Amino acid sequence: MNPLRPTRSLLPAALLLPVAMAQQTIRVPDQAATIEAAIAMAADGDRILLTAASYQIPDTGLLLTKSLVIEAVGDNRAVIDYPDSSSWAQPASPALRITGLGSQGRVVLRNLTFTGGYSIWAQSTVRSAVVVVQLPSGTGELVMQGVHAIGETRHQNEACPGLRIDTGPGVDVLLRDCRFEGANGRSPFFAGGGDIEYHGSPGAVGFCAGVLLAECSQFVGGAGGSAPALFGGQGRRGGDAARLQAAQSALKNCDLVEGTGGSAYVYGPWSQTDPCPAYGAPGQYVTTAELYDCVRTVVPQGCGQTVQYWPLQVGRNDVECIPPATVGVPFRFKVRAEAAGLGFTMLLVGSRVGALEVPGIAGLLRLEDPAGVGILAPSTPTSWTDVWVGSVPATLGWLPTIAVQPLHLDSNGLRFGSFATFTVR
């Protein structure tokens, strides 16, 4: 069996046109002492390269309104720490807030971890999220590749999701190999009888009026805190893995990890003698997205429960997740094609993601500018076909996301498969 091997000549012509490349690379801390200084000096189209392993940012956080690529070196990861609270009045800003996509309409973040500081102050200010995206208008693309956002603990219920997002119909949001984790409601400063703990936060929350595609990512709800089994009281709820509503959305090969409910304990003569029924409930994800081979992880409510794994929409995915490509370096990915004798599969390549508007299947994601690059060799229902790209042109380095999608034809007619996206670095 000979797998399809696309070459430069087979790539869509639109992907080979000259594009706006990065104007300059600003290294932090070599050329700019801090990330916020690099953002201030950068122009649209620039690249900010984080060469150190960790960075401290001010309690006002980072604000991004320009078309930038911000990334760690190679496959390394840069940790961006938000400071711990030193007083109850300290600002509770996001570590990163994105409110614009700049003149080129594109922001790319790669291999960054945003950590939440810790607040020891009871009833401290609720923090909207570690990473906040506010793009209700305009057009463009936000790409997060390998971004982790870990919620902080702030002594309030559902005080800090990992990601909060609000985007308009002209904005595409693409999340690849990311982890968004809500704050837990537990507090080591209030351990013991009579402590006050809180509900866990969701991993990600928000609404996207445009495209939202998450691939090979984790959404993790924060664990709920404990509470006394007293007068009908219960342990605190675990955070939902995600509360994501989107008009055109898909979650592919994603893990939805619900926050574990908090424990209940005997406290004083009026407590229940058996606290197990008073344990908090776990989180429960809510999403309108199409699901492709995802897994929900949950610990049921009560004492001594074990972790349960619930596969969601098994077998729907037919393109594996694709890591970032490198200019001039061959790479491959896998596609599950139609089996021999049942039909055939064409591979489509494009650079824009949209949604089908055919009655009955509206909302399913598709390519807006597809170009067929060939017919895939047939496979068995459980096997995958290798697709090789021999060389990646340098002109692809600053394009909107490149996407591949199979189009299947069998006795039931045409059927769009799931797809994978990637960028070139």
Largest sheet: 14 strands, parallel
Structural class: mainly beta
Low-confidence stretches: 1-21, 358-363
Summed up, the domain count is 2
Task: Give the overall pLDDT as a whole number.
Answer: 82
- What is the first-to-last residue Cα distance? 31 Å
| Total number of strands | 34
**Percent of residues in beta strands:** 35-45%
Estimated radius of gyration: 23 Å
Instruction: Determine the fraction of residues in helical runs and give it as a percent range.
Output: under 10%
What features would you highlight for this structure?
425 residues, mainly beta, 2 domains, 14-stranded parallel β-sheet, nine-stranded mixed β-sheet, 34 strands
Question: What does this 3D model show about the protein?
Answer:
- This protein has 425 residues and is mostly beta strands.
- It folds into 2 domains: 8-312; 331-422, no CATH class.
- The protein has one helix spanning 35-41; strands at residues 25-28, 47-50, 54-56, 62-64, 69-72, 78-81, 96-98, 106-110, 112-115, 131-135, 140-145, 148-150, 163-167, 171-176, 179-181, 204-215, 218-220, 227-228, 242-252, 255-257, 264-265, 286-287, 290-292, 294-298, 308-312, 331-335, 343-350, 353-355, 365-367, 371-375, 385-389, 402-410, 413-416, 420-422.
- Strands 1, 2, 4, 5, 7, 8, 10, 11, 13, 14, 16, 19, 22 and 23 form a 14-stranded parallel beta sheet that branches.
- Helix 1 links the parallel strand 1 (25-28) and strand 2 (47-50).
- The longest helix has 7 residues, at 35-41.
- Residues 1-21 and 358-363 have low confidence and may be disordered.
